[in-house]
Write a structure and sequence with these properties.
Layout: H1 15-29, H2 36-43, H3 47-51, H4 57-76, H5 79-82, H6 86-103, H7 105-113, H8 119-144, H9 154-167, H10 180-195
Helix pairs in contact: 1-2, 1-4, 1-7, 4-6, 4-7, 4-8, 6-7, 6-8, 6-9, 6-10, 8-9
Pfam families: TetR_C_24 (PF17932), TetR_N (PF00440)
Keywords: DNA-binding, Transcription, Transcription regulation
Protein name: DNA-binding transcriptional regulator, AcrR family
């Protein structure tokens, strides 16, 4: 007796490829202006082929936002982000966040555009605030350890750092000749030079 075949979804249209197309459309047209019909047309499939993977458009948005947020939260759990001096942990989080942005540019771009217009967006914004808190706590710890200038409020420093990181979505293109590592090196060199206390 042979085993039943494993259900793998429609050939050539994995959930990941569907998500890539959806994120591109959401970024180009806006989430509200993008219909399931348009997504199906872009994929060259019927709407029912999309519903084979997800129950609806809102699930595509949730998955896209989670893709970006999960990658960013994973950075804060890496060993280099959890042990050692706070300023070094902060630098690691900033450097790796740039690399995540480069690797997940469309999803991070979408994340930065949400405004809390739906339950899914509000959850995403809450998770972003938690990331902000983690970074602000690292800045506070680095100030307390004497490695970061104490004359700027830690919350402001955190916002400035990630405002700089987030601005990369406006101009960075992975195929533009500047690699993610070089980009991270440049950003860390330019921002941390002004943050670290002079020895």
């Amino acid at each position: 007796m042979t085993a039943a075949p494993v259900r793998r979804g429609r050939p050539g249209h994995s959930l990941d490829s569907l998500l890539d197309v959806a994120v591109a459309a959401f970024n180009e047209r806006g989430y509200d202006a993008t219909s399931m019909e348009e997504l199906a047309a872009r994929l060259g499939v019927t709407k029912s082929a999309i519903y084979h993977h997800v129950p609806g458009k809102v699930e595509l948005l949730r998955l896209a936002l989670d893709r970006a947020l999960d990658a960013l939260f994973a950075v804060t759990e890496e060993p280099e982000a959890t042990t050692g001096r706070a300023v070094d942990r902060l630098e690691h989080v900033v450097r790796r966040s740039v690399q995540v942005l480069a690797a997940e540019l469309p999803s991070v771009t979408l994340l930065l555009r949400v405004r809390g217009n739906s339950a899914v967006e509000r959850v995403a914004l809450q998770r972003r605030r938690e990331l902000d808190r983690i970074v602000t706590d690292l800045v506070r710890a680095a100030v307390a350890e004497g490695d970061v200038r104490p004359d700027v409020d830690p919350a402001v420093t955190s916002r400035l750092l990630f405002g700089t990181v987030n601005s990369l979505t406006e101009w960075y293109r992975p195929d533009g000749g500047l690699g993610a590592d070089d980009l991270a090196d440049a950003l860390v060199a330019s921002t941390f030079r002004g943050l670290r206390t002079r020895s």
